[in-house]
Write a structure and sequence with these properties.
Structural class: mainly alpha
Radius of gyration: 17 Å
Shape: elongated
Number of helices: 6
Strand content: under 5%
Length: 161
């Protein structure tokens, strides 16, 4: 999900990453109006917190991704690893900020109410599921895809390295 954000951050910089993060976040937020049951539940619970979680966190993730690439660009690391690590960081930022905001803004009670899981273990199970399954696959995909796309753009001289 964060690969286009990471590629934009590599190609243009942190502010482009933030802008693309905003597009991703707004798309995610719009799904909270019936397309995504969990997002709909959160939006019905608190629309402002849902907006912050969906949009603000993605803007910040895109901006931070651009900053990571700015730092990595100055290293002697091979181009593939510079861009791949940037993609990996984008996925990590997305997961940490989204799940962190979910827990901070909505708390254990709301999250477990939405999932129907016993409140004593619900938040741990939700976090383990998101981080343990989705985030791992997203991180691997972002590492490989952003590394390949970023390297191709740089080698084609479409983006400065």
């Amino acid at each position: 999900l964060m690969t286009p954000v990471a590629v934009g951050a590599i190609a243009v910089g942190p502010w482009a990453g933030a802008l693309l993060g905003a597009v991703f976040g707004i798309t995610s937020f719009v799904q909270c109006f019936g397309a995504d049951p969990f997002g709909t539940f959160l939006a019905n619970t608190n629309i402002v917190f849902t907006f912050i979680m969906c949009v603000v966190c993605r803007i910040l993730a895109g901006f931070l991704t651009g900053l990571v690439y700015k730092v990595l660009k100055k290293t002697k690391m091979p181009v593939f690893f510079k861009t791949a690590v940037t993609g990996l960081c984008a996925a990590i930022f997305n997961t940490v900020l989204f799940v962190g905001a979910l827990i901070l803004l909505f708390g254990k009670g709301t999250v477990t109410e939405a999932t129907g899981i016993d409140p004593t273990i619900g938040i741990v199970m939700l976090f383990a599921t998101i981080v343990g399954i989705n985030a791992v696959f997203e991180a691997i995909a972002a590492f490989i895809l952003t590394g390949g796309i970023g390297t191709a753009l740089i080698k084609a001289k479409l983006v400065k390295s």
